[in-house]
Design goal:
CATH topology of the largest domain in chain A: Rossmann fold
CATH class of chain B: Mainly Alpha
Strand order of the largest sheet of chain A: 6-7-8-3-9-10
Number of domains of chain A: 3
CATH superfamily of the largest domain in chain A: P-loop containing nucleotide triphosphate hydrolases
Number of helices of chain B: 12
Order of helices and strands of chain B: HHHHEHEHHHHHHH
Number of strands of chain A: 22
Largest sheet of chain A: 6 strands, mixed
Strand content of chain A: 15-25%
CATH class of the largest domain in chain A: Alpha Beta
Oligomer: heterodimer
Shape of chain A: globular
Radius of gyration of chain B: 19 Å
Number of helices of chain A: 17
Distance between the termini of chain A: 69 Å
Helix content of chain B: 55-70%
Number of strands of chain B: 2
Structural class of chain B: mainly alpha
Bound molecules: adenosine-5'-triphosphate, magnesium ion
Chain lengths: 521, 309
């Protein structure tokens, strides 16, 4: 009935989902090359692979967003042709998308109500809002149903995206990097929900770049590389190193080489900074710190405590209402992003696609975006394509950006390669200050390692690095000093060597404040 | 008490003149909220005007004329939807073509009727009781056709539909982010067809009103650029049906005044007034920025292609 069964079947039941010999080509790449993948009822099956390996493509095919060029899809032993997400939903498939699919100007409740069966005709948002409050409590994923999605931080948006899927309760749940910007606690809560669903007989496909997470949650793990399946292993019988080797094809170092910190002159000074968020409420209430050349200051904190606003003010994208910012001895409070970048301030933004690249422009154009107006890329107001090309060629090689060509629109690259492109552009002009927000979120282990190395190299070369991240591990690994933000204030700044996880945790929760000594800022 | 009379008649006429603007704007809001710009309003209105006149003239039933006008407007809009939603043609080009086509076709078909007055016109109402209120009565509740009140009611209903119902969430989501709606199983094309088609119905009625009620006769080009004002009004009203009510009547007043003041000012200048004002208003609403929440639907004017990054 099912035809030849490829994946090991634990029992006589047909798999919940069987993808057979799926091939999908995009201009210049084979995203899926005869991929076979089986999901059983009552299992969590993780899908691993480098950025651009084709995981999302495969899942989009299962969800009806892409049509495969060839191959078969079987659901519960029946051959199906999934032509749209609507048909996928009817087959009991739900999906949490890697690139959030949210209506930004709408409220959280409206987003959840959209297309949800059983919502009342009148005032659907109000009815859903009530249900949502209760569910988000139960699932440990707090959201405010009445807030508009564009006001939310990436972490909060991810919670909404997950709640949207959970509330629909699909039989087959695809989670495409659901934890990329969640806090560890939130991720743990999510895993509890998944375990419950698994026990109830749902099948869950789980994509993540966090190997520890995958090893603890999944039953089976399928690894993909460059569009092909490398193999499927039992989670209980493998380890991080083996998985990384399968994914990348080489050994991956999990421990970074990090020289001792020799802070130089002060590069960035922030004093009593006040700013409002998009809703007009105070997001920063007197933030003070300094970053010196040759050091990395990590900003830790739970999403939505003012980190985003801080980065925006520092890069000239948001008004500072009070306080001042001094860059290399020059007061740059409320000056334009262009001036800041000309002074040597690099920005690796939180929202890659929206703020990091111009999606429709080519890779080479994106690479020179900040400097297209100056020599050697510009001559008397005219662009010099040769110089642009030569520079782009070198950047693509240096930063190992995987792209079909230099002329490919940047939006077609995979997430990790988009991030490498941004770093290549931002770090190219020997920046004095690097402001990096969540620089490795969503990146595979190899790329994460490389990007962390790049940031460390910036520090060695004498740049001051401000690293904003919700990933505490990353902060502990990279930062020389750690500042913890809570409700728009810095709860304390501690040298990384002396920081205890517990202390930082307390400060993140706002339960502990360190007296900030004036020389310690 | 001369100025009271003047005021009463001005407001009353402004209402009458605002009706086609209101219906047209409500239709355009409906289409644009689903993400489709339809610049064919002028064409749909003139086709509606001609159809209503022709049907009313030959059957003696202005109501039937309006119904047919609605159907013709809706049909023309569905053609626009076919081009832009199914074939993914450029919405602006398709809309402009529809306007040209409508003006041309109505002119051609209406040759024999040019200048003919209509025998069976839409009756005006005097609302019992309300009309006897001093000043307000004659201003608002006399000499209006049913379409004035129906238009206001429709605006309220459309607002409720858009902002208080499940369908409204669907329509606005399709206009803001069709990819999101699609991923949740919403049939984006269907929603767009329905909204554009319904918008066309309303524009058709707006046009029909011109020839069976406002100026019961057929003259070529009698829509006189109203379709373009509708486009501006849609932005002016910030895609909000309730704001469209006073916007439409305000522009109705401008139109009316430009006739009234002909004795004092150059008529060419006066004819420019509504358009000039539309430009001023658009510029002003642009300056208001995000604070006014005057944002166009996010996917306005963009065809939706599934799976495109
Ligand atoms: N719509 C598209 N058009 C063109 N190319 C695409 C499209 N979608 C994906 N690709 C390409 O297909 C390949 C696989 O991409 P995919 O998004 O599936 O990778 P992934 O494994 O999910 O990576 P990541 O971990 O970064 O999310 C990449 O090279 C990508 O550039
Ligand atoms: Mg992916």
């Amino acid at each position: 009935m099912v035809g030849p069964v490829h994946a090991p079947t634990p029992d006589a039941h047909p798999p919940l989902v069987l993808l057979k010999d799926i091939t999908k080509r995009f201009p210049g790449v084979v995203a899926n090359d005869r991929v076979t993948f089986a999901l059983h009822a009552g299992e969590i099956h993780a899908l691993l692979g480098e950025n651009g390996a084709g995981k999302t493509t495969l899942m989009n095919i299962l969800y009806g967003l892409y049509r495969p060029d060839s191959g078969e899809i079987w659901v519960k032993g029946r051959r199906v042709d999934i032509r749209s997400p609507r048909e996928a939903i009817q087959l009991g498939i739900g999906m949490v998308h890697q690139h959030f699919k949210l209506v930004l100007p709408h409220t959280v409740a409206e987003n959840v109500a959209l297309g949800l069966a059983g919502t009342p005709f009148w005032a659907p948002a109000r009815a859903i809002g009530r249900k949502l409050r209760e569910l988000s409590q139960r699932y440990g994923l707090p959201v405010d149903p009445d807030r508009r999605v564009w006001e939310l931080s990436a972490g909060e948006q991810q919670r909404v995206e997950i709640l949207k899927a959970l509330i629909r309760g699909a039989e087959v749940l695809i989670l495409d990097e659901p934890t990329s910007v969640l806090t560890p606690q939130e991720a743990q809560e999510l895993f509890k929900v998944l375990a419950r669903m698994k026990a109830e007989g749902h099948g869950i496909i789980f994509i993540s770049h966090k190997l520890d997470e995958v090893l603890s949650v999944a039953d089976r793990i399928t690894v993909m590389r460059r569009g092909r399946v490398v193999g499927t292993v039992l989670a209980a019988e493998t380890n991080k190193a083996e998985l990384a080797r399968m994914m990348v094809g080489r050994e991956v170092v999990f421990r970074l080489r990090k020289g001792t910190c020799r802070p130089g002159e002060e590069a960035l000074l922030v004093e009593d900074l006040h700013a409002r968020n998009d809703r007009g409420l105070w997001a920063l209430r007197g933030v003070t710190f300094r970053v010196c050349r040759g050091e990395i200051l990590g900003i830790a904190g739970v999403a939505g405590n003012g980190q985003r606003e801080l980065v925006e003010v520092l890069t000239g994208l948001r008004r500072a209402e009070r306080g001042r910012i001094v860059l290399l001895g020059r007061d740059v409070t409320n000056r334009s992003p262009r001036l800041l970048s000309d002074l040597g301030c690099a920005h690796v933004p939180e929202e890659r696609i929206r703020m990091g690249i111009v999606p429709a422009l080519s890779v080479e154009e994106n690479l020179v975006l900040k400097r297209h107006h100056r020599p050697p890329f510009c001559w008397r107001g005219l662009l010099r394509p040769k110089a642009v090309r030569a520079f782009a060629q070198k950047a693509v090689e240096d930063y190992a950006i995987m792209t079909p060509s230099l002329r490919t629109p940047a939006k077609l690259l995979s997430g990790g390669n988009i991030q490498r492109l941004i770093l290549a552009r931002e770090l190219s002009g020997k920046p004095a200050v690097v402001i990096a927000a969540h620089p490795t979120y969503g990146l595979d282990v190899g790329a994460t390692e490389q990007i962390r190395q790049l940031l460390l190299r910036q520090r060695e070369e004498g740049a001051a690095v401000l690293l904003v991240s919700e990933d505490l591990e990353e902060i502990l690994e990279l930062a020389d000093r750690i500042a913890v933000m809570f409700r728009g204030e810095i709860m304390g700044i501690v040298p990384a060597g002396e920081a205890s996880l517990e202390e930082i945790g307390l400060m993140m929760a706002g339960e502990r404040r360190l007296a900030v000594r004036s020389e310690g800022i | 008490m001369d100025w009271v009379n003047w005021l009463v008649s001005t407001v009353s006429r402004a209402l009458a003149f605002g009706v086609p603007l209101l219906w047209g704007t409500l239709g355009e809001i409906c289409a644009e909220r689903a993400g489709v710009v339809n610049l064919g309003v002028e064409g749909m209105m003139i086709l509606g005007a001609f159809t209503a006149f022709a049907v009313a003239q030959s059957t003696g039933q202005p109501g039937l004329g309006l119904l047919c006008a609605a159907l013709v407007g809706g049909g023309a809009a569905l053609f626009h939807a076919f081009l832009t939603v199914t074939l993914r043609a450029n919405q602006y080009v398709s809309g402009l073509a529809l306007s040209m086509f409508g003006l041309g076709l109505a002119g051609l078909l209406g040759r024999g009727w040019e200048g003919k007055p209509l025998a069976a016109t839409l009756p005006t109402l005097t609302l019992p009781g309300l009309a006897r209120i001093p000043v307000l009565g004659p201003m608002l509740f006399q000499d209006q056709t049913v379409l004035t009140y129906a238009g206001v009611l429709l605006a309220v209903l459309l607002w409720l539909l858009l902002f208080r119902t499940r369908w409204g969430v669907v329509i606005r989501s399709v206009g803001e982010s069709p990819a999101t709606a699609d991923a949740l199983g919403i049939r984006v094309s269907l929603v767009r067809y329905l909204c554009v088609g319904f918008g066309g119905l309303l524009a058709g009625v707006g046009g029909g009103y011109l020839s069976v009620a406002y100026r019961p006769a057929w003259t070529e080009g009698m829509s006189a650029g109203m379709g373009w004002i509708v486009i501006a009004l849609t932005i002016f009203a910030a895609w909000d049906p309730l704001q469209a009510i006073w916007g439409a009547f305000f522009f109705g007043a401008l139109y009316h005044l430009s006739y009234r003041l002909q004795a004092y000012l150059a008529p060419e200048l006066l004819k420019l007034m509504p358009y000039l004002f539309a430009v001023v208003v658009l510029a002003a609403s642009g300056f208001g920025g995000a604070r006014w929440r005057r944002r166009a639907p996010g996917a306005l004017g963009l065809p939706y292609v599934r799976g495109e990054r």
